[in-house]
Amino acid sequence: MSRLTPLLPLCLSLLACAMEPDDPVFLSGTALEADGTPWRGGPLLLTRPLPLPTSPTSSPRMRFETWAEVTPDADGLFLHRLTARDTGADDIRRPIPWADDNAFQLLLPPRADGGRDFYAFELHRDSDVPPLRQWSSNVRSVEATGGVRLAWDAMPSIVDVPEPHYFVEARGPTGRAWLIRTAQQEEPWLGPELLEDFTDGHAHVQAFSAGARVWVHTSLYFFAVHDAPPFRLPVEGRVPISRGVDCRGGTRIVSPCPFTDGRLEAVNVPGPPQALATELTLVLPQPARPRQVVIRGASVVGPPGQVFHVEGSVDGSDWRLLAKSAVLPDPTSGPYLDETNSDSGGQEYYVRLELPVNVPEVREVRVWFGVPTPGGGPPGFKQSIRTLREVSLFTAP
């Protein structure tokens, strides 16, 4: 045996010597029940991402598959042995089936109610994950004007895990119908106009944090993700008067319109040749008096501080401002998605705007975004809109 062998651990920790493929890499941590006691619910799941086929112009997609089980002891502690080959720590390039050689998820076992608790992480050498604790979310609703407000119990504080953001999402069969990013002490509102008839009738609440544990030559970068069980909302969706109407980008009528079909797919907004659209107009079959406008998934090209504008016209020539929003907060990316192993990307605006009771009847409604000039003056120009999911008009209930 080489006289240097006893010094190998010191070499690895202080000098970051290259590891041999079969050298151990340890993953350690603690699993906890919702009340903070040691985990008693069986082995944890360690999963890895397999890449999915995509088109050359699409973002990478993946699917996590179970790779190993990790069994905590009676105190909830675990120590799981991997190898440098398993995690890419030997720095040897080789074909791998995984989307990334050091990306994993560590999950508490699946719950019958649909809730999930896990870390998604990338590790470099030995890593100790923060305690993995089940979230007892207790999502609930209280009646509010025109809909309901949601509340839930906060995710308990965990060492080295930043305070989470909470995402509230409503989903349709082909995409996101609504998204709210909020703090635990806030009570976000959901109503029939946000659900329409294309959601599953549930609110999906997620507590999400991003953090890191880094020391000398080891590192662990992680997302802490806790999905509450889907919460059945006690309100029914409402179909807008704009469902299925034609729309216009610039001067070109689009029929059928992909922004009024209820499909929720992110679609490029038609505009001038070789340019992005700056507005979208909905053309109603007959005059109506809208009271609410809901825009979903607007990807706007421009600086922060956007204001959403709604204008109306009887003939498409003379336009009148019906309402405008306050300055909108910067759009958030969204909750964690397995298929991207990150937040859900694509910063999009989701805006609900109530119109005054005295708005006139109009046959065309035009929506656009702009940034006020210094001092609060009107925008100097309209911002380009890259994609939209849906625009909906509602009359009074």
From TrEMBL:
PROSITE patterns for this protein: PROKAR_LIPOPROTEIN (PS51257)
Keywords: Signal
Biological source species: Pseudomyxococcus hansupus
Top-level division of the source organism's lineage: Bacteria
Signal sequence bounds: 1-18
Entry protein name: Lipoprotein
